[in-house]
Amino acid sequence: MKTVGAITIGQTPRDDIVGEMATLLEGVRIVQAGALDGLTRKEIDALAPAPGDDDALITHLRDDGEVLVAKRRIVPRIQACIDRLADEADAFAILCAGVFPPFRSARPVLLPERCLAAVVDAAFDGGRLGVIVPIKEQQASSAARWSRVDPGVMVTVASPYEEPSRLIAAAEELHRARATLIVMECQGFTRTMKQVVRDVTGAPALLPASVLARFLAELA
Predict the structure, then answer these.
(1) What is the rounded distance in angstroms from the CA atom of residue 212 to the CA atom of residue 220?
(2) CATH 3.40.50.2300 fits 114-206, yes or no
(3) Res 141 pLDDT > 80
(4) Residue 1 pLDDT > 70, yes or no?
(5) Is the peptide bond before 164 cis (omega within 30 degrees of 0)?
(6) Rounded CA gap, 105 and 13, in Å?
(7) What angle do CA 77, 83, 89 make, to 5 degrees?
């Protein structure tokens, strides 16, 4: 594998995420594409979820703002990005930790959610699973999904795009719940944020960007 197509549900460049991955992918070229690239703000707003919709995803825009989009409206745009890079990439990485249906591709398409699930299945040995999601609309669906691993899973909310104090508060919630393994369920989280969570909770934390990159490295 020489080239990875990194597909964000927002706008490129996402050098914050790609930079995290590149440190673990020596010799691999990463090309980016964004589901919201080329859209006006009015067109982006038309992709918004209904209020309280658990179909909501949060993503970053080029102007440093963030926006909520409906998964069902963004999936076809992700597929279009994959199709556009089909002749250039040897594998694809979706830069969002949400749950997605399979994408059409002759090359591997890696999803952080599946990679995280595989690591949790391998590493969780009882105790308490803690999860951090970026928006409250994802809290219930995340709890339902991870309850197969730990029926008492604790899911809290903190966005990587908010003030750092919110992440600290979320980590403190997980510390009080005695979480023994933390899943940081948003691609926008960084190694620095991971270290904050580890320092507060005293538990190992899984970062989507690095977990995804390690799976890609095995394909290289």
Answers:
(1) 13
(2) yes
(3) yes
(4) no
(5) no
(6) 23
(7) 120
